[in-house]
Design goal:
mainly alpha, globular
Length: 258
């Protein structure tokens, strides 16, 4: 396991160095994403200046949600950036060369790229969590649990969506669309979702377990809330691994993509 983690760290570090190659372009992308997040946060500041709360959510709660989302997306893109093009890799047949290498196919796909824009997300998320989310030093252990679990669910969902490429050529764009919709659902207070939309937010597009359940855990810590967050992370990770390897078996048989 130590050797596996070390190998992944080396691969991810190489991808990060590649993203730094064109420093001017890197700086522009990071700044652009940081400004985009700042504008989005400012809109919420103006909103809460007039309405104070939404379904029991105050600005600090919304800042916690946005800070978690930005940090999770930032971490995912910087060290697991290959998730964005995983479906394309499958459709292009790029797995053929990777299958001849030692086990750990998913990890090698994830470590292939580091997204420059994600550094802007990561910086913005840390700032929002530190300045606006009303967190205390005592919340740090639960914050780490929330970030780890949210990252696991988000990344697992992206892998599950990308795995559709083993069965359908349309997954090239569909997987990204589903991942982007998950981010969209993660950008608004959980109290606005009801009925069928809430079911979707806690199942197909698991925004509920990416940020909403972690927010609840941080605001109302307890055995139940911690168990829900950790169980969701384990469940979605198992689902992602199962779907990917089920599709990989089909890929190994040489089955054509519909």
């Amino acid at each position: 396991m130590i050797a596996f983690v070390r190998l992944y760290a080396l691969q991810a570090a190489a991808a990060v160095r590649m993203s730094f190659a064109d420093r001017a372009n890197f700086a522009l992308q990071v700044a652009g994403m940081f400004i985009n997040n700042a504008v989005f946060l400012t809109l919420w500041v103006l909103f809460f200046a007039g309405f104070k709360s939404v379904g029991g959510w105050g600005f600090a709660d919304l800042a916690l949600l946005l800070g978690l989302m930005m940090t999770i997306v930032g971490l995912c893109g910087t060290v697991f950036g290959g998730y964005r093009d995983m479906a394309i890799s499958v459709l292009r047949g790029e797995l053929d060369a990777l299958l001849t290498q030692p086990k750990g196919l998913i990890s090698r796909l994830l470590a292939r790229e580091s997204l420059a824009t994600s550094w802007g997300d990561l910086a913005g998320g840390i700032i929002v969590l530190g300045l606006f989310a009303d967190l205390k030093l005592a919340d740090l252990p639960l914050l780490l649990v929330a970030l780890t679990a949210g990252l696991t669910v988000y990344l697992s969902a992206a892998i599950s969506f990308a795995s559709l490429a083993f069965w359908a050529s349309g997954a090239r764009s569909f997987a990204r669309d589903l991942t982007d919709f998950t981010l969209l659902f993660s950008s608004y207070p959980g109290s606005i979702y009801e009925g069928a939309v809430k079911v979707i937010a806690y199942s197909i597009l698991p925004a509920g377990f990416v940020v909403m359940a972690p927010v609840e855990m941080l605001r109302e810590p307890g055995v139940r809330s911690v168990a829900v967050v950790i169980s969701a992370a384990c469940g979605y990770a198992a689902l992602a691994a199962g779907l990917f390897h089920l599709g990989l078996k089909r890929y190994r048989r040489g089955a054509s993509v519909a």
